[in-house]
Design brief:
Blueprint lengths: L1 H22 L19 H41 L5 H11 L4 H14 L6 H24 L4 H9 L4 H12 L1 H16 L3 H6 L8 H10 L6 H26 L9
């Protein structure tokens, strides 16, 4: 089983190795790329940084903005669905599940007409709101599943001490739900960072162009030299890799450890 695990892991990470390998070879092409960069060069990274830095920063602004908007709406919504028993809750949750099965291109095409009417095409806010609309349902479902496990006695104790529901939510629920919130934020960031269809549909200029579109348009002008393209892909992968390493301890840790004695 260990051998099989190593083999499967090697197959999965080989594209990543080939991406890094190609980015370190000058004039790398489909037929000239060797299996190992015997004479590595960072020329591809220099070119990629010079030509794609604006797209990289655009993706960062869009992704971080999407995280903020998503958590502002999804966190209280998840707590309300977990804490209060309201008529129609199951139907609402079913609708949230159904939204996850709608293809992204359908949502993007529907938003195009709306955003065109309100002048949100080719803007940061347009992409942030569109990505947030795609990420909020999943974040609500994820955080609600965790918040349901919070003992009601913790919130009730805060209410007895004079706090209202909002104060209890801020002071009790959010700190305990930190791991779930971090997990939702991570998935939201990754979803917005890797979005392609929404950005392709809602943007048509270079003023606001995320890194995914930058790579897509970059390929056409670099079919004979893949080093800048692969270097751009490596740079685009770094934020996701760093976040996964930093946030994994919050995802793996138990949020209620020691909360109730």
């Amino acid at each position: 089983m260990t051998v099989l695990g190593v083999l499967f892991l090697a197959v999965m990470i080989f594209p990543v190795y080939w991406m890094v390998n190609s980015s370190l070879q000058a004039n790398a092409g489909a037929a000239t790329t060797t299996w190992f960069p015997f004479q590595p060069t960072f020329e591809g990274y220099v070119v990629a940084f010079q030509q794609q830095i604006q797209n990289f920063l655009s993706s960062m602004v869009i992704s971080l903005g999407t995280v903020v908007v998503t958590l502002l709406f999804a966190t209280p919504a998840a707590y309300g669905l977990a804490r209060f028993r309201m008529r129609g809750t199951r139907a609402f949750l079913l609708v949230l599940l159904i939204t996850q099965m709608i293809p992204t291109i359908v949502i993007a095409n529907a938003l195009y007409t709306l955003f065109n009417d309100v002048n949100l095409l080719n803007t940061y806010w347009g992409l942030i709101l569109a990505d947030s609309a795609a990420q909020i349902p999943f974040s609500i479902l994820l955080m609600r599943a965790f918040m349901e496990s919070i003992p009601p006695s913790l919130v009730e104790a805060a209410l007895v001490d004079g706090a209202n529901n909002f104060r209890a939510f801020i002071s009790i629920v959010i700190p305990i739900s930190r791991n779930a919130i971090v997990t939702a934020a991570l998935f939201t960031f990754l979803g917005a960072w890797g979005d392609f269809l929404i950005a392709l549909t809602l943007t048509s200029t270079t003023a606001v162009r995320p890194i995914t579109l930058g790579i897509y348009n970059y390929i056409g002008s670099n079919v004979t030299d893949w080093a800048p393209v692969m270097a751009t892909a490596v740079l685009a992968s770094l934020p996701a890799a760093v976040l996964l390493v930093v946030a994994q301890k919050y995802i793996a840790a138990g949020a209620l450890g020691g909360a109730v004695k």
